[in-house]
Design goal:
By secondary structure, the chain is an alpha+beta fold. It has two domains: about 30 residues; about 475 residues, Cytochrome P450 (Cytochrome p450), CATH 1.10.630.10. The protein has 19 helices and eleven strands. Strands 1-2-7-4 form a four-stranded mixed sheet. The protein has a three-stranded antiparallel sheet with strand order 3-11-8. A two-stranded antiparallel sheet has the order 5-6. The longest helix has about 35 residues. The structure holds protoporphyrin IX containing FE. The site of protoporphyrin IX containing FE (HEM) has 24 residues, from helix 15 and helix 19.
Length: about 500
């Protein structure tokens, strides 16, 4: 068969095109582009899905195991998304301190596109003048020592109500679901502090619904979502995650909307612009002359900020309380030692106050140990590389998602003796704290995006736990269960929760 020059050139062209497409497809599937050759080591990705199957339903633990094989900085391909995971204190310092400015923005989970939350929510907006203003507002008005001292009596009152509730349950010989009680109290602490709204008397259905909304939002935001790994699927929302998020977000935004409107109406009656609580501070802050003309804009901004505060501040604190109680029930000798300290410093029958907390070193050590073993956000919140960033001899490529596995960092045997044991005493002689100075223990994150609610969270957690164990003795509801066998399984959402809610029987330590 004769092939003329024209046919030959056509075949050659097809061959070149075929080889070029094959190379592109190979690169696409096996991630061998030039920059990526300097990627940190990691498990070999499967075509298309990458390493998705290796995440499992407890990503913090799967990633910890993988880091033992691939090292303190490793890379994975989650669908189309290159993800870099750091798993030691030194590597966390590289991300959160040395190169903080290049890792300060976040990858946005598709679920957070619900209600356009990623455009307004402080947790998700990129570092920008409006984010800086929100941080300034938090640091100087919402969580400053002055602001927190000004409303500490409200928190004392709410915790006293928690104790009254528990006393009533004790008298009825029933058990307390610690997570729910902690959630309700955290919610009330925030609602009275921020909005002067008391939800204590509201129907328990509302508290249950809010709890369900917050937990579902945390759960779906932390759930592996195909739309995050394969951006083409965003439109379809194949697992219905964004739809579910939209439903719960709208519910909470609607509630805040009603509260804001009521406050505005009340302010119209009096001509004085008050500054009584945080909502007034927010209204005064957001209502510049220009914004006053555009009510929707500033109301929307406040609703998104409140949404972040209530979601970030309730489940994290209540799950910390629940883990604390579970660990204390597992180790009765630690519980007795903490109760003895409280009895000595506070005195039998007296209420624990925030001003007492500095005089309770053992209680503080317990809480640090809980944050070490059960960080509520085990992978912090995702960060994103703004440019190619060199860490050690590796390149974290522009646009990569960066996760800091604080769960494994705070169980690193090179830093912590008996890392999986609950031993609060380790903190009595140590200056390590959780406030972002020590990369071995950073449950609140670090750098410019460190949790702004940290000062309030620490007050709330210490106050609730200290009060509960000072006023009551606790034992497990189930007869015959040995303390050391308390179920400590966790389930992964955006916060790490106990799989089985903790139910315990209280007995008052003194009569009223
Ligand atoms: C036990 C309690 C809490 C823990 C463990 C916790 C943990 C965290 C973590 C790990 C981050 C991300 C930090 C990073 O990216 O480096 C964060 C951010 C944030 N937290 Fe908390 N948090 C807690 C309580 C609170 C409370 C009580 C509030 C408010 C009332 C709050 C509000 C926020 C906000 C608004 C952000 C976003 C900050 C930003 O991106 O600029 N958190 N938190």
């Amino acid at each position: 068969m004769e092939i003329d020059t024209y046919d030959f050139l056509s075949y050659l062209l097809y061959l070149i095109l075929f080889i070029w497409i094959s190379i592109q497809a190979f690169n696409l599937l096996f991630s061998c582009s030039e920059t990526q050759q300097n990627l940190p080591p990691g498990p070999r990705p499967f075509p298309i899905i990458g390493n998705l199957l290796e995440l499992g339903d407890k990503p913090h633990k799967s990633l910890a195991k993988l880091s033992h094989i691939h090292g303190p900085i490793m890379s994975l391909k989650l669908g189309r998304i290159t993800t870099v995971v750091v798993s030691t204190a030194d590597m966390a310092r590289e991300v959160l301190q040395t190169h903080d400015h290049l890792f300060s923005n976040r990858t946005i989970p598709d679920s957070l596109r619900a209600c356009d939350h990623y455009k307004y929510g402080m947790v998700w907006v990129p570092v920008s003048p409006s984010w800086r203003n929100l941080r300034k507002l938090c640091n100087s008005h919402l969580f400053s020592v002055k602001a927190l001292d000004a409303n500490k009596n409200l928190r004392h009152q709410k915790v006293q109500e928690l104790l009254d509730d528990v006393r009533a349950v004790a008298e009825a010989g029933e058990a307390v679901d610690i997570g729910t009680a902690g959630f309700k109290t955290s919610l009330n602490l925030l609602s009275t502090t921020f909005l002067s709204v008391d939800w204590t008397d509201s129907s328990s259905d509302m508290v249950r619904e809010l709890k369900e909304s917050v937990w579902t939002m945390m759960e779906v935001a932390g759930k592996p979502n195909l739309a995050d790994y394969f951006p083409v699927l965003k439109i379809a929302d194949p697992q219905g995650i964004r739809t579910s998020m939209t439903f719960h977000m709208q519910k909470m935004k609607g509630l805040f909307h009603r509260i804001i409107n009521q406050r505005l109406q009340a302010r119209e009656v009096t001509t004085l612009i008050q500054e009584n609580d945080t909502l007034d501070t927010l209204l005064n802050y957001f209502m510049t002359e220009k914004e006053r003309e555009d009510q929707l804009l500033y109301k929307n901004s406040i609703e998104h900020l409140l949404l972040d505060i209530f979601v970030a501040g309730t489940d994290t604190t209540s799950s910390t309380l629940e883990w604390s109680m579970a660990e204390l029930l597992k180790k009765p000798e630690v519980m007795s030692k903490a109760q003895a300290e409280l009895k000595q410093v506070i005195g039998k029958g007296n209420q624990v106050k925030e001003s007492d907390l500095t005089r309770l070193p053992y209680l503080q050590a317990i809480i640090k140990e809980i944050f070490r073993l059960h960080p509520p956000a085990p992978l912090l919140l995702p960060r994103r590389a703004e440019t190619d960033v060199q860490i050690c001899s590796y390149v974290v490529p522009k646009g990569a998602q960066v996760l800091v596995n604080v769960w494994t960092i705070s169980r690193d045997p090179n830093t912590w003796e008996n890392p999986n044991e609950f031993i609060p005493e380790r903190f009595l002689e140590s200056n390590i704290d959780v406030k972002g100075r020590h990369f071995e223990l950073t449950p609140f994150g670090n750098g410019r995006r460190i949790c702004p609610g940290l000062p309030l969270a620490l007050r709330m957690v210490h106050l609730m736990l200290g009060s509960l164990i000072h006023s009551f003795d606790w034992k497990l509801e189930e007869e015959g269960v040995e303390p050391e066998t308390v179920d400590m399984d966790d389930k992964f959402g955006l916060t790490l929760k106990k799989t089985r809610p903790l139910r315990t029987l209280p007995t008052p330590t003194f009569s009223k």
